[in-house]
Amino acid sequence: MTVLDTAPGAPARTREPQVELYDFRRPLTLVREHARHLEMAFGRFARQFGTQLTARLRVVTHLELEQIALHTYDEYVSLLPTPTAMVLCTVEPNRQTGVVQLPVATTMVWIDYLFGGDGRGDDRPGRELTEIELTLVRELLQHALSDLEYAFAGITRIALDVRSVQYNPQFVQAAAASDAVLVATFTLRMGEREDTITLMLPAEQMIAALQVADGTVSASPEDRRRAELAHADLGRAVSAVPVEVGVRFAPVTVQPRDVLALAVGDVLPLTHPSTEPLDVVVDDVVLAQAAIGSHGPRLACRVVAVTEENRA
């Protein structure tokens, strides 16, 4: 900080507020009750995973759940180190893709233990798994991930089938960039070694299952009444929001040189037939079709058809 910044009478520096868009169709916030159910399920899975590794590697192993969060897939990938081992799995029953992410050095330690070593592993940068090593890691993870079905039995039926391993997160398209994904972060302790691993699952199926599990049966009458009041308040608030409605002719295609040469008095012919209705649009979404008319001294349009699928 300079002397000028602290001088009396110096104007205070204000930071422009940053507005972050929120997509109500894909909320990235977990309901508290849903988060609690997921923490219990992932906690059970972590205990079983640690037990499986202890039995197979013959070294005391603990897996502890650190946090659960909702991200877009693009956000999740941006948080991962490069290189890292991304184990791609098929999520049953919807055949989507899940990811088990862990440091490559951790898999080398596992392989060392499996071959009877002391767990020194191989920390050479850029090292990738050989075919034999990949087979061993795939078999080890497949046994450990089989406990996921038991852990989530109270929420939904889920199973992971290990497919392949990739090492550069930026080149892995396990989901669309804007898709919501559920990310569980764990701390893995093997002897004196400590690593961070993550498990990524598609969020849509899990959240839908949690909502079904909640249902109206688990909610008290008071909770249902509050939910109904909140829904009614939201409906009234949304219905009072002003929106801009426009009518649109069919677009016409012209060359850039024609656009640059436009001058006062030029005529731009439209391809819209005079007998065809115009599109009624809100935020570039077609809601209806309307015929051209007038209302007193003003131009007007009469709605002749409504596009039902876009009104939701």
TrEMBL record:
Alphabetized InterPro entries for the sequence: CheC-like_sf, Flag_FliM, FliN-like_C, SpoA-like_sf
Gene3D superfamilies: CheC-like (3.40.1550.10), SpoA-like (2.30.330.10)
Membrane topology type: Peripheral membrane protein
Main location as per UniProt: other
Localization per record: Bacterial flagellum basal body; Cell membrane
Alphabetized UniProt keyword annotations: Bacterial flagellum, Cell membrane, Cell projection, Chemotaxis, Cilium, Flagellar rotation, Flagellum, Membrane
Signal peptide: none
Domain called Flagellar motor switch protein FliN-like C-terminal: residue spans: 237-306
Pfam family, one: FliMN_C
Keyword RNA-binding: no
Entries under PANTHER family matching the protein: FLAGELLAR MOTOR SWITCH PROTEIN FLIM, YOP PROTEINS TRANSLOCATION PROTEIN Q
Family: Belongs to the FliM family.
Name listed for the protein in its UniProt record: Flagellar motor switch protein FliM
